Amino acid sequence: MNIEPDKHWFRPFGYLIICLFLLLIWAGISEGCRKNDSLPGAGMVSTGGSSVDKKGSGNSDSGDGPGAGIDGKGDGSGGKSAAQSGTVKVAANTNAPPTAESNSSSMAAQSSANTNGTAQTVKLQAIESLTSPRQQSASNDLPPADYNSNSAGRKGFYGIASHSKGRVLFIIDTSGSMAGPSGEFPGKSRIDVLKMELKKYIFGGQKLTPASYKRGGSFVIAAFNSSTTFFPDNGSCRNSNHSDMKKTEEFIDSLQANGGTMMRDAWQRSFELIKKQKIDTVFFLTDGEAGDGFSSKWLLDELKEISHTKPVVHCIRLGGRKNKDMEMIAKKRNGKFIALP
């Protein structure tokens, strides 16, 4: 019997080659899909508040730019925290259709961006509440200056800044009414506040410091009630003199409120001192009415007699009541008048 050879012996090899070819094609397609899936998509947002290519900070007021969008467009939400999210630059692969996986990634990233933005907004608000100055109440009970520290509060003497060349006379009321409560500082008397104002003006604070001796100039204090006491007894004190300043501190601390209000006597005894010491600035303070015939007309007439010195006269009225005499004196002598509670 003759057996003919199989004419289709090559078919198995052909099938194998075809399978290998199809396998290669499938592998190529799979690799391409994997690369497409790994491209930086719409949801890749930097949690630090800027975009992937470092160009995406949003507008802090308009809210442009948080997050996840196509071709780098944010969805605009986030308000003030928009700057924390920024815009995102998407890889330029417009041929690859969006897949379910990439859409899911985008949604997750957008949710993360919004969450991060909200959290950072809370942090910003907390920081702002700590760093921004607190608004003070407009209540009159709040003092305009802090005298618990050594730093000066309001400038000058009771808020009146002096442009003096350095020769100052304080004519101050220490009568019994000065023991009354201060309308500015609860718990303090008017004489207490007067002492603090004198120290602030002369020392630059509530205590003597090395800087106190560098302020320059000179001064005299005339404290009046039923009589007038001058400090120093003769001449004037100089800020640069350590002994003068120590004695000044002791004198201010010793001031007490008692007696009457003899303004005319205080001024009468001050005229000669104004001429000799060439006083250029006078601070005149009282909380009451004169008990010895003092008037603005009398004082202004007397000051004309020493017109060569032409001292500026500032007037401070305590107790919240205006005083026409003091207003007139300040006006005629190029000074300032203030009425305080």
Question: What order do the helices and strands come in, and which of them pair?
Answer:
Elements: H1 11-37, H2 100-131, E1 167-173, H3 190-203, E2 218-224, E3 228-231, E4 237-238, H4 242-254, H5 263-276, E5 281-286, H6 296-304, E6 312-318, H7 324-332, E7 337-340
Parallel strand pairs: 1-2, 1-5, 5-6, 6-7
Antiparallel strand pairs: 2-3, 2-4
Helix pairs in contact: 3-4, 6-7
What report would you give on this structure?
- The chain has 341 residues and is α/β, with parallel strands linked by helices.
- Among the domains are: 43-90 and 98-107, no CATH class; 167-340, Rossmann fold (3-Layer(aba) Sandwich).
- Helices cover 35% and strands 11% of the residues.
- It has seven helices and seven strands; from the N terminus they run H-H-E-H-E-E-E-H-H-E-H-E-H-E.
- It has helices at residues 11-37, 100-131, 190-203, 242-254, 263-276, 296-304, 324-332; strands at residues 167-173, 218-224, 228-231, 237-238, 281-286, 312-318, 337-340.
- Strands 1, 2, 3, 4, 5, 6 and 7 form a seven-stranded mixed sheet that branches.
- Strand 6, helix 7 and strand 7 form a beta-alpha-beta unit.
- The protein is rod-shaped and about 145 Å long.
Average per-residue pLDDT, rounded, comes to 73
- pLDDT < 50 stretches: 38-109, 121-152
- The total beta strand count reads 7
Helix content: 25-40%
Rg from Cα: 43 Å
Give the CATH level 1 class of the domain at 167-340. Answer: Alpha Beta
In this structure, how is the largest beta sheet organized? Answer: 7 strands, mixed
Q: What amount of the residues lies in strands? A: 5-15%
Report the total helices: 7
Shape: rod-shaped
Topology order in helix (H) and strand (E) letters = HHEHEEEHHEHEHE
CATH fold field value of the domain at 167-340: Rossmann fold
Give the second-level CATH assignment, the architecture of the domain at 167-340.
3-Layer(aba) Sandwich
For the termini, the CA-CA separation is 141 Å
CATH superfamily grouping of the domain at 167-340: von Willebrand factor, type A domain
Global structural class:
alpha/beta
